[in-house]
Amino acid sequence: AVDQRMRQATVNLFADMGVQPATLQSPLVAATASTDTAAPTSTITSPTVGASVPAASRVTITGTAGDSGGGVVGAVEVSVDGGATWHPANGRANWSYAWVPTETGTATLMSRAVDDTGNIQGTPSTRTVTVTQMVCPCSAWPESATPTVASDGDAAVVNVGVKFRTDKGGHITGIRFYKGSGNTGTHVGALWTSDGTLLATAEFINETATGWQQANFTTPVPITANTVYVASYRAPNGRYAGDSGYFVNSGVDTGPIHLLKDGESGGNGVYAYGGTTVQFPNSSYRGSNYWVDIVFQPSP
What Pfam families does the annotation carry (predicted)? Predict the structure, then answer.
């Protein structure tokens, strides 16, 4: 069916261009040229001015935009190279843009908005940040990262995990996971090849009631660059952290560590029920993130 809103929008656009149709089909109505000549504005709100961000890690640039000329913001663009190139942001009044810096040093971030009449922001919003080398040993998630569902209602014995690869060869020194208040019992972390060969295990000791937990392997495990591995832990009483759909549209890229997008190497967010010891998690459901992580030390 014909969308009458789009047809009317075309009439409105022609009016802004000084063009009027000889006749109009019902229910379209004649339009007059917009009197909005005021450009919209945009502002970067994050990262803060002078902030330090690690190279090769995903940085979310956020901001706001508005139009005081009677129109509405039509789009926002972001530049991460001082205005040499521009990229569309997601959202309008509140917008965001995902950036993965590749070079260390000072980076100039800019934003500009355009309204529904075509007025474009004259002077972009600008701020500088410092891109630093990522320090390792490193993990995909910072301590500040938290799940939406910290403790799922499923109370069965289960092994949950994540598929990952690294840009560089090196060693996995430990396994991390986020613990919700209901996730009790003795937890055991495990590292596997993509086909289920067990490489190492480590029991979590001195756990806190909630938050990130870490178990270190007795001997760090060597891994090969650009090779898929699986990190997991055994939850004897279930109640694991789990956010459905997390890996459906994108993975997580933090420095040399990449938690895979669902479908990149089969499903991601993997699990296996039962067993009295660790089990290889090879089932997946809706790209769920079970908030499992690694500790990685790249080779020199």
Answer: Big_7 (PF17957), DUF4082 (PF13313)
- For residues 203 and 269, state if they share a domain: yes
149 and 245 assigned to the same domain: yes
3-state secondary structure of 87: strand
Exposed/middle/buried for residue 171 (C-beta within 10 Å: 0-12, 13-18, 19+) = middle
pLDDT digits (tens, 9 = 90+) for 5-21: 888 888 888 888 889 99
* Same domain membership, residue 165 and residue 294: yes
Number of other CB atoms surrounding residue 199 within 10 Å: 15
**Single-letter code of the amino acid located at 239:** R
Strands 252-254 and 229-235, sheet pairing: unpaired
- Amino acid at the residue 290: Y
142: CB partners within 8 A, 6+ apart: none
H or E segment to which residue 284 belongs: strand 283-284
Output DSSP code: residue 33.
-
